[in-house]
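Researcher: I'd like a candidate sequence for this fold, 902 residues long. If you have to choose between options at a position, lean toward the conservative one.
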């Protein structure tokens, strides 16, 4: 028995000696134990003699036996007689007998569960043969006590049952709405009826009826500008309802059609983007906005665009732009870079489909050009044909065979906007489509193509026909290979080709889809993002890895002031299963990303006083007078900050570095008179910075993406100049700036320019008469008094102000007073002559033949009393402390030539 040292032998241990039963002879004196196969005999067991005469013996262990340590033992035993005397001399030994000892087990251990908690989840509404299996172990060595005879659920009233093997099943269909989670306890018994030391907990979660598809989809995702990258699907996972799949592919599509062509670039124009990307200057715009100087695009219909660019529509028949010869003459040479935005179709125009047998589509020419190359001509034409883009190039019109470069591109016929950059450095030609390089296949071809023109010509949207009169007089009906679709930003820059980094920058997207961390991408997973970052594709074969990868898809926006609005979002999934017939089919998910309104920047113009007073001769100088010499432009960003002390929101303003794209100086009131006044700008500074300027009589506009410091330098160089003798009283100007194509505008800075005139020059009689005519006819000369008028929304309208009315009243009152004074002087003079009886004329006698009165017209209140010679003269003024130049000066020149001033 376990934990005992007595060995019960079967049969019992006896040793017999055939000698006569004499003393010593025939007696058994001892037993010896020898090692058996297990080698434990002499160590653990011993044998003793109980009766010498009968030879009965006993086997016992030196220490109590442990069944769990060793269940069976084997050894040999041998008997010895007593020999011929008490000393055992000449003793004899028996043969060896083998002893097998089996230790009987004692049920000293209780069952122990392998896990203390078992969890499982099952869909509702079904009966399962096994939901989860529990397992307990017993440390006893015998099958009787080491085996678990049965399990038992000790929690009452649960809809579950357990069998003797530990399998748990439900006894009735489960309902997740009634009870989502079931928790109960189970125990185990061994065959010796020992109960488990500790019971095990079982948790069964009831899942709703399994519907394959994406779980955790959020239809609306909000993005706060300035947040960098945010995950689009943080809680999304795919449920296949235990269907075995071996390939999963998900396509995430972010629609950016709200921003016009391509992707958002801080809402800058194509020309501004070229400047920001460091492109080489000198490009020629082949499709400029219609204007008197660029009238070849006036007949082309335009479409509204969300960005600042102008989109031209070509209908494939009569919409053709003929570039003038002066523009074409600037595009000489066989090294050039042609860039454009293209979209096949557009509006009601459908793109041409790929040619099929019996239905061959005609080529559509985008650009057809012949330019001078030294003493010869080079001809090229860029065309589309189905889903192919081709460039025909003649290095010399006298060459027999032109070279054809051909590209097969899906972007040509997908009815989406794409950016093309074609760098020609013959014989090398490089094509970039959306910033990605595509290699052409060189083909020498003699196909039916238009012959080169005998002189420099360039058409947009078609190519010339073969009629001889076509070269001198262009008719749209004679054009061939007309283009169907939309074009924008078509430019050619002669000379060296653009670097690859510049081309990538021109198309670089500032917002789009991205993947969070490629290092976390599981094995077997693939991710691909298109150049415009509007489509992201995930592919894998493991559900868990795929779910983790989907949660790493992010939306990235590096714009300082992101364009607010809604971006539609789509998720399309395709599965491939081992059993294709029963494979799951998932519907497309649709949502939208909302970019919230960013904190608007404040563009502040300061450093210019409301008044600028200078002597009139300074404005008549060759350089005029600087209007904004101390102009300062500051851009700040205001945002709400919670104040913990008061629990309120306060506005914080941070100065930021900005890029302006336009400023305008506008005269208020009537437009500038080009014969008398003009605004001057330092053109060297403008050209050095690559800015554009429009200088008219109504305004002067400076455009182009540049830093604030550059705009400050340019605006400080704006000067106002008057022609000689163009006397004015004042002139008002308004200055404003903007960035991101007018999306954010500055405050309007108004400057009133005052002209200081000297009294001797200003108030000559003829000058006074001219001034009175101006006052009496404000409708014809309102611009000269525009400082006293109220601004009107219409640029050319003038409304008289309060100051004008006061001046007119004062002048009228003063004229009346002068007339009354003259009559009074004459009457006093006649009375004096009558009283003196024809006295002689003296030097003090008043003579009004040379009377001159000079009056300050700005003085409102004046009381004048003038008396003749010999009477007291009185001058009453208001205010009393008026200065000399505010008084009425009467100048009298007598017959003796002496002048007297009063």
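Model: Candidate sequence:
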């Amino acid at each position: 028995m376990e934990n005992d040292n007595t060995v019960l032998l079967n049969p019992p241990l006896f040793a017999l000696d055939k000698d006569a039963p004499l003393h010593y002879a025939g007696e058994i004196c001892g037993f010896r134990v020898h090692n058996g196969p297990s080698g434990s005999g002499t160590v653990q067991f011993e044998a003793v003699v109980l009766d010498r005469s009968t030879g009965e013996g006993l086997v016992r262990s030196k220490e109590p036996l442990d069944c769990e340590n060793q269940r069976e033992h084997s050894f040999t035993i041998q008997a010895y007689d007593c020999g011929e005397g008490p000393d055992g001399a000449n003793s004899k030994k028996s043969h060896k007998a083998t002893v097998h000892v089996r230790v009987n087990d004692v049920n000293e251990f209780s069952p122990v569960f392998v896990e203390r908690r078992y969890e499982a989840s099952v869909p509702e509404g079904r009966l399962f043969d096994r939901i989860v299996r529990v397992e307990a172990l017993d440390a006893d060595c015998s099958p009787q006590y080491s085996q678990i005879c049965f399990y038992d659920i000790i929690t009452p009233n649960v809809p579950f049952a357990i069998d003797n093997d530990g399998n748990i099943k439900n006894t009735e269909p489960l309902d997740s709405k009634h009870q989502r989670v079931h928790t109960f306890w189970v125990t185990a018994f061994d065959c010796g009826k020992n109960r488990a030391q500790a019971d095990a907990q079982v948790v069964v979660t009831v899942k709703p009826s399994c519907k394959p598809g994406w779980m955790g989809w959020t239809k609306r995702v909000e993005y706060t500008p300035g947040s960098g990258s945010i995950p689009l699907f943080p809680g999304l996972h795919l449920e296949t309802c235990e269907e075995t799949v071996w390939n999963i592919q998900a396509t995430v599509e972010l629609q950016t059609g709200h921003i016009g062509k391509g992707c958002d670039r801080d809402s800058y124009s194509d020309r501004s983007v070229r400047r920001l990307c460091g492109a080489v200057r000198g490009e020629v715009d082949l499709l400029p906005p219609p204007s008197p100087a660029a009238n070849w695009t006036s007949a082309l219909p335009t479409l509204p665009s969300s960005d600042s660019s102008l989109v031209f529509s070509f209908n494939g028949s009569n919409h053709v732009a003929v570039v003038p010869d002066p523009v074409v003459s600037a595009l000489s040479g066989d090294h050039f870079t042609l860039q454009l935005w293209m979209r096949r179709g557009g509006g009601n125009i459908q793109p041409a489909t790929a040619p099929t047998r019996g239905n061959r589509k005609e080529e559509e020419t985008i650009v057809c050009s012949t330019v001078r190359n030294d003493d010869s001509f080079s001809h090229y034409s860029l065309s589309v044909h189905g889903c192919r883009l081709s460039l025909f190039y003649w290095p010399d019109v006298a060459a027999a065979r032109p070279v054809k470069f051909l590209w097969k591109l899906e972007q040509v016929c997908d009815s989406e906007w794409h950016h093309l950059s074609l760098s020609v450095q013959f014989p090398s030609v490089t094509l970039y489509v959306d910033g990605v390089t595509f290699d052409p296949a060189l083909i020498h071809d003699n196909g039916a193509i238009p012959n080169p023109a005998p002189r420099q010509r360039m058409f947009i949207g078609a190519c010339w026909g073969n009629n001889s009169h076509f070269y001198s007089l262009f008719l749209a009906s004679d054009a061939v290979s007309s283009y169907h679709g939309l074009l924008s930003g078509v430019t050619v820059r002669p000379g060296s080709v653009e670097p690859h980094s510049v081309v990538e920058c021109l198309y670089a997207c500032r917002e789009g889809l991205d993947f969070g961390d490629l290092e976390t991408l599981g094995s077997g997973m693939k991710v691909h993002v298109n150049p415009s970052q509007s489509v992201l594709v995930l592919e894998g074969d493991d559900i868990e890895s795929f779910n983790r990868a989907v949660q790493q898809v992010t939306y990235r926006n590096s714009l300082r002031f992101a364009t607010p609005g809604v971006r539609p979002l789509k998720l399309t999934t395709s599965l491939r299963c081992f059993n294709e017939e029963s494979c799951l089919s998932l519907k497309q998910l649709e949502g939208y990303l909302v970019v919230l309104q960013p904190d608007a920047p404040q563009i502040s113009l300061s450093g210019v006083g409301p008044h600028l007073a200078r002597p009139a001769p300074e404005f008549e100088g060759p350089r005029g007078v600087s209007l904004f010499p101390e102009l300062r432009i500051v851009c700040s960003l205001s945002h709400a900050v919670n104040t913990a002390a008061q629990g309120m929101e306060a506005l914080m303003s941070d100065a930021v570095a900005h890029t302006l794209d336009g400023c305008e100086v506008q005269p208020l009131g009537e437009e500038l008179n080009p014969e008398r006044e003009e605004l001057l700008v330092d053109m060297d500074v403008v050209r050095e910075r690559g800015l554009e300027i429009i200088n008219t009589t109504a305004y002067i506009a400076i455009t182009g993406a540049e830093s604030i410091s550059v705009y400050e330098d340019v605006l400080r160089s704006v000067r106002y100049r008057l022609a000689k003798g163009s006397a004015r009283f004042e002139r008002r100007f308004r200055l404003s700036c903007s960035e991101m194509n007018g999306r954010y505008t500055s405050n309007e800075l108004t400057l009133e320019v005052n002209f200081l005139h000297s009294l001797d020059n200003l108030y000559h009689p003829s000058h006074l008469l001219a001034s009175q005519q101006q006052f009496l006819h404000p409708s014809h000369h309102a611009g000269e008094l525009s400082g006293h008028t109220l601004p009107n929304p219409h640029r050319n309208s003038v409304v008289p102000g309060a100051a004008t009315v006061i001046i007119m009243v004062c002048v009228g009152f003063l004229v009346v007073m002068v007339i009354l004074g003259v009559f009074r002087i004459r009457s006093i003079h006649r009375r004096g002559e009558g009283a003196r009886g024809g006295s002689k004329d003296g030097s003090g006698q008043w003579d009004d033949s040379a009377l001159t009165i000079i009056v300050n017209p700005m003085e409102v209140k004046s009381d004048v009393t003038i008396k003749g010679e010999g009477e007291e003269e009185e001058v009453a003024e208001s205010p009393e402390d008026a200065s000399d130049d505010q008084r009425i000066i009467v100048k009298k020149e007598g017959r003796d030539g002496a002048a007297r001033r009063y």
